[in-house]
Design goal:
By secondary structure, the chain is α+β, with helices and mostly antiparallel strands. The chain folds into two domains: 27 residues; 97 residues, Ferric Hydroxamate Uptake Protein, Chain A, domain 1. Helices cover 40% and strands 18% of the residues. It contains five helices and five strands. It starts with a helix and ends with a strand.
Length: 137
């Protein structure tokens, strides 16, 4: 009897968790536009970057998403926390290295939290967040 109650409770928990995940990711177009207009959101398109008319990608991000350039969290040791940079899946240094990427080459740029970046890139990702740039090759 107890086993069947446990199975039912686990199944119900899984269903509720799945439903809440689906509801939170559905979002509305208006919500996405509001997040984009207020500097939120985790993706910038190449068109948005070009529209800044800045001289390099670092300056464009300073204008559009300055919070992406600031490291998140604290390091467990005395090491410095940096926002790491990946270009087309390859580690390229820190956020300062964005200045070497021409705006016209950018397809999109994403910000990943430290946990998301750790999942995607393992120990190569820093603990201060990660910028992922896709370029036109």
């Amino acid at each position: 009897m107890r086993t069947s109650k446990t199975k039912i409770a686990c199944t119900l928990t899984l269903v509720l968790f799945t439903a809440s995940c689906a509801a939170s990711s559905a979002g509305s177009a208006d919500g996405d536009e509001a997040a984009s207009a207020s500097g939120g959101g985790s993706v910038l398109t190449g068109e948005a970057v070009l529209a800044t008319h800045e001289s390099d990608l670092y300056r464009a991000l300073q204008r559009l998403r300055p919070s992406w350039l600031r490291p998140r969290g604290q390091a467990a040791t005395n090491t410095r926390t940096e926002v790491t940079l990946f270009v087309d899946g390859v580690p390229r240094g820190t956020a300062r290295d964005l200045g070497t990427i021409p705006l016209t080459a950018v397809v999109d740029i994403r910000f990943l939290s430290a946990s998301e970046a750790g999942f995607a890139f393992g120990t190569l990702a820093g603990n201060g967040g990660t910028l992922v740039v896709r370029t036109r090759r």
